[in-house]
Write a structure and sequence with these properties.
Layout lengths: L6 E2 L1 H8 L3 H10 L8 E2 L4 E4 H10 L8 H12 L2 H15 L10 H14 L1 H15 L9 H10 L6 E4 L6 H7 L6 E6 L2 H12 L4 E6 L13 E6 L29 H11 L1 E12 L9 H9 L3 E7 L11 E7 L10 E6 L5 H13 L11 E5 H4 L8 H5 L7 H21 L13 E3 H6 L3 E5 L10 E4 L1 H6 L6 E2 L12 E6 L2 E6 L6 E2 L4 E5 L6 H9 L3 H4 E4 L2 E4 L5 E3 L3 H41 L7
Parallel strand pairs: 4-5, 4-7, 5-6, 7-8, 9-11, 15-19
Antiparallel strand pairs: 1-3, 2-3, 8-10, 9-10, 11-12, 13-23, 14-20, 15-16, 17-18, 17-20, 21-22
Length: about 625
């Protein structure tokens, strides 16, 4: 199919123009010359890509058409959804040295190759992987990057070889391969196209690796292989996993998995591939911790000292389900004289992953040490779990949080009142305006004249080592900068830089005031020339822009389009006045966040104190 025959949907057009779907609907209603549909359905029409490109350029909706969007539309047109994986997989393989295209259209390959020359092979590969995952988000169960990194850390520091028997697009394998010391990463995936895409992702890490296609439970691609660690996010609630064919399988050392408990088959498959002392880390549905049908296997895993930790994660931490999930950490016995007598139970979220990982390492060093954190983590005696239910749900065993004392309550209350007393001086002030319109200039024009440098960080992997990374959680929520990654290929920030992020339809900005940070994934750097632009002036005006002019959609989420943003064209001295005012606003907002957090702690302290009898209601 030629490039001229390529078609696009309304969602595709929105991506190309950097606007929302509603804007495309408005264009169709208001502009008689908007291209007519050439296919599709009444509710999901398809338009000629060539005609849409010409219209967008003629109307000035875009200054230039995004290269990667043009390439993606060519790929989508070349393949029905059922063949999309094959086309995308070949495109990724071409980036990594495959000789010539067979199913990828020549026009699409030329665009992808050009994009890779401009942005690098890694970014082009990640674009293909991410866009494929977006299209198939309902049937793919991708492990979020931060969860993948957490799971890999739990597998331990002495890992040389790793296996993921249900690797999907390879997120866990890639996270493991980036860990210091890992020399070999192996995977298997039922879907052949996904296996090919996972190979391409693994190739970016530089670690020796192989990914085979096939059903791991029925046709194991690695019979007899043992590795140091298995990391896996197995499919949940599979009914047709091979129960009838695999009844007498030697892998079921801890019991035949019930037909309705496919996850326990994956647990034992992982254990079968571990060498003595090796660790398996699996993402499991929370229900697997207490289903009656699986209690015999859970009991055997506990009794023999195999299940070492269960860590609860919040809902929606795994794609494809809004239900809570757990991380199970298991260890293959290594001939110890007696089985471990305790299991680590914890609740974690991205903000506490570092602390829980440290606690896990301390638990391995000495499981009898005082590691309990009321309401958050506890080392539970195995005997306590061996009741009729064998329920290993962490929340059931953590007990209430730390007990409040009168001193705690008084401290929280005094701190809150002190913060409250500071607010009158922090509330920003401004004089009544004259209602005049300021002359405006686009950031693209400021960039062209050298007053501003604009750079954007694509999606990249975090490895929790190296330098500190400024992320969207810091830009939006003021969280401390804790995330780390290696500096190679990253953008290093300087004091006075403006960093922009979006969440939903809301932009946020922050002015960097400490040196040495790296620009985090999906963030935008605006670096003003201090002799021509005040950074707080830029940050203040950029964050107040209309979503229609400053925001677009990318991969189903909102994305900042910096070159469309505009700021007033005024002298530096006037900019400084605006900048000082915006800076006060930023300080006020930071104080508000701290106040809200303190208010929540105070309310919790009072409620807990009343409930436990430490405090009494006033008469």
């Amino acid at each position: 199919m030629s490039g001229d025959e390529a078609t696009v949907t309304a969602a595709d057009i929105a991506r190309m123009a950097g606007v929302g779907r509603a804007a495309v609907s408005n264009w169709r209603r208001r502009h008689e010359d908007f291209p007519a549909p050439v296919g599709g359905t009444a509710t999901s029409p398809a338009f000629s890509l060539r005609a849409v490109e010409a219209w967008l350029l003629e109307q000035g909706k875009v200054e230039e058409l995004p290269l990667k969007e043009r390439a993606w539309q060519q790929i989508r047109t070349a393949a029905a959804d059922l063949r999309l994986g094959e086309v995308v997989a070949e495109a990724a393989e071409l980036l990594h040295g495959r000789d010539r295209p067979h199913v990828v259209p020549a026009a699409a390959w030329e665009l992808i190759r050009q994009y890779a020359r401009e942005r690098g092979t890694a970014e082009a590969t990640h674009f293909l992987l991410d866009r494929y995952a977006d299209v198939h988000s309902r049937r793919l169960s991708e492990t979020p990057a931060e969860v993948a990194e957490f799971m890999v850390r739990l597998a331990g520091p002495a890992v040389r070889s790793v296996l993921d028997p249900a690797c999907g697009l390879g997120a866990l394998l890639a996270a493991a391969a980036r860990t210091a010391g890992v020399e070999r990463a192996l995977g298997q995936e039922h879907d052949a196209s996904l296996a090919r895409l996972a190979r391409s992702r693994l190739a970016l890490t530089g670690v020796e690796g192989r990914v085979e296609a096939g059903d791991s439970l029925r046709r194991d691609a690695w019979p007899g292989l043992t590795v140091d660690a298995v990391v896996c996010h197995p499919p949940f609630n599979e009914r047709n996993w091979g129960y009838d064919e695999l009844t007498g399988d030697l892998r079921w050392e801890y019991g035949l998995p019930p037909k309705t408990e496919s996850e326990l088959a994956w647990v034992q498959h992982a254990l079968a591939h571990l060498g003595p002392g090796g660790f398996a880390v699996l993402l499991m549905p929370a229900i697997a911790a207490n289903r009656r049908s699986g209690r015999r296997i859970r009991s055997n895993l506990l009794r023999r000292g195999v299940l070492r930790a269960v860590i609860g994660l919040p809902p929606k931490m795994a794609s494809g389900t809004g239900l809570p999930v757990h991380v199970w950490v298991l260890r293959k016995p290594a001939g110890e004289s007696r089985a471990p007598s305790r299991v680590l139970m914890a609740e974690a979220d991205p903000a506490t992953f570092d602390a829980v990982a440290e606690q896990w390492r301390a638990f391995l060093a000495d499981s009898e040490a005082g590691l309990d954190r009321p309401g958050r983590s506890r080392t539970v005696p195995v005997i306590e779990l061996m009741d009729e239910d064998v329920d290993i749900t962490p929340a059931r065993h953590l007990g209430p949080g730390e007990q409040i004392t009168t001193a705690d309550y008084l401290s929280c209350r005094e701190d809150l009142l002190r913060r409250l007393g500071r607010f009158p001086a922090l509330v920003p002030e401004a004089a009544p305006g004259a209602g005049r319109e300021l002359p405006m200039v686009s950031l693209s024009e400021l960039e062209r004249t050298g007053a501003l440098t604009i750079r954007q960080a694509g999606r990249y992997e975090i490895d929790h080592s190296g330098d500190l990374v400024l992320t969207d959680r810091h830009v939006f929520d003021g969280e401390p900068v804790r995330t780390r990654t290696g500096p190679e290929g990253r953008i290093r920030l300087e004091p006075g830089d403006v960093v922009a992020a979006t969440r939903g339809a809301s932009p946020a900005t922050v002015v960097v005031e400490e040196p040495g940070l790296l620009l985090g994934p999906r963030l935008t750097l605006l670096r003003p020339d201090p002799d021509r632009l005040d950074p707080f002036f830029v940050a203040g005006f950029v964050r107040t822009l209309s979503p229609v002019t400053a925001l677009g959609t990318q991969s189903g989420s909102t994305r900042f389009d910096p070159r469309r943003a505009r700021v007033p064209r005024i002298h530096l001295a006037d900019q400084a006045r605006y900048g000082a005012a915006f800076r006060k606003i930023f300080v006020f907002e930071a104080e508000l966040r701290e106040f809200v957090s303190g208010a929540g702690l105070t309310a919790e302290a009072i409620a807990r104190g009343l409930a436990t009898g430490v405090l009494d209601p006033l008469p």
